[in-house]
Design brief:
This protein is an all-alpha fold. The protein contains ten helices and no strands. The protein has one domain: Four Helix Bundle (Hemerythrin (Met), subunit A). It has helices at residues 2-21, 25-39, 42-49, 57-62, 67-71, 81-101, 112-116, 129-138, 141-161, 164-167. 24% of the residues are buried.
């Protein structure tokens, strides 16, 4: 995992350089899609190409993890893994759909709140410990993973439609 983490950090540095340079948009898109694939479940990319990416942080972290462990908030921490996945998916959903594409969030489609078994629509930035614990206990883990995959797939669609001017 350490070598993959270093590769991801190296790619992030390279993406910043390419975006700052502003001349090689195709390279920026390639780096973005590689990084995005590493941070999401392999299911996000499998839907596009039918191929399995070489490695995924999400899959590595969650392999063999029980729902109980995903819901657990360690004593020295403020969030569960389930909450972190939900929060990351919510931030990506809001940023890509509302801020970049100017369209409704994925959360608003396909009855996601009901499927997730929660009522929280916001991103959770201001949640207190009790609210984090409640969301962690109640959220449907299978639906959460599916929601994150849906968000990831839609992000890739949005980015494919962006022109070079959008990267500026």
């Amino acid at each position: 995992m350490e070598s993959n983490r270093k590769l991801c950090l190296k790619q992030q540095t390279e993406l910043r350089r390419v975006l700052t340079d502003g001349e090689n948009h195709e390279e920026a898109f390639v780096i973005f899609f590689n990084q995005h694939a590493m941070l999401h479940s392999a299911l996000v990319v499998q839907a596009e190409s039918g191929e399995t990416p070489a490695w995924s942080f999400e899959d590595e972290i969650l392999k063999d993890m029980t729902e109980e462990k995903m819901r657990l908030i360690p004593r020295s921490r403020e969030h569960s893994i389930a909450w972190c996945i939900w929060h990351a998916a919510r931030i990506e959903d809001v940023a890509m759909n509302i801020l970049i594409a100017g369209e409704p969030q994925i959360l608003e489609d396909d009855d996601w709140l009901k499927r997730l078994a929660i009522t929280v629509r916001h991103t959770g930035n201001a949640m207190d410990k009790a609210e984090v614990a409640e969301l962690s206990d109640e959220i449907d883990i299978e639906a959460l993973r599916a929601y994150r995959v849906g968000v990831g797939r839609h992000t890739r669609e949005i980015v494919r439609e962006l022109g070079p001017e959008a990267l500026k």
